[in-house]
Amino acid sequence: MNYRTNAVMSFIINLNIVSMKTKLLFFFLMSCGLASAQTYSFNTVTPIPDGVGTSCASGATSIGNVVTTINVPLTPAITDPTKVTINLDLVHTWLGDVVAKLGTPSGASCALIKRMGATSDTSCGDSSDFASGNILSFNAANTTTINVTTPGSTQSIPAGSYAPTAGTSTFPTDIPLCNLSTFLNGVVVNGNWTMTLYDNGEEDTGSLNSWQIIFSTGFDLDTQDFLFTKRISVLGNPFTENLNLKLNEPGDTVLRIYSIDGREVFTKSYAANNVSQNINIDSSSWQQGIYLLVPEVEGRKLNAIKLAKK
Fold this sequence. Notes:
mainly beta, Jelly Rolls, 6-stranded mixed β-sheet, 13% helix
């Protein structure tokens, strides 16, 4: 075999090694379930119908409103509200007119923005603007409310991370200001989330450019490690001729096990009523090495669990 042939073969081997590393990296990323934030968006520019009447809010003849919807296909319930963020991109030439109401799939609702600067039920509130592209980001961890004094009548509210903000008037009384820590806690996220925009005064107008719901890693559990130990127990790791697992909670479950090179060596589904079931998997034909258990519970792929066979 000459030098040129050796060089070609070495090049091919190196390519195969790079390809395998790429496949393994892709496999690890794909098996991480909700290891990254899940973002759901409404991106259709939607005018907010103008209110009608010589007075505002309770004194208006009619209050304009429009409802927009985001469908969330995830199934868990929120246990850490600080891992859920709602972003709003609004345009309006008189922000004191505006109420922005967040609604959950169960029908509960509260206001992220509620007639800022309004001091009475007929007050028109602050005359500052909401400007296009100035994203208002709401999260349970945020403590700073929107400052309607600093911008002034000819300026716009800056982009930023805010707590829900209202004027001193309680109107409309059927839309309370959000306390996101309590409002979001325990909410099952699956289904239609709504953002309803109200215009409580005439002449000045606006629109919703877009809004988002972002579910960050851990929104449904305190830590991913707790998720693993709560859902599935590995009884003996490393293992030898048999791999023993235990399902600790109800829920339709699919278990898939892959070798380190990405080959699926085991897959099986378990019905929701198989609680506290001991699972014995014959692993006698598996080679020694590292394996990845990728659980899927109620259609949601969880982070991979590392296994080792001796």
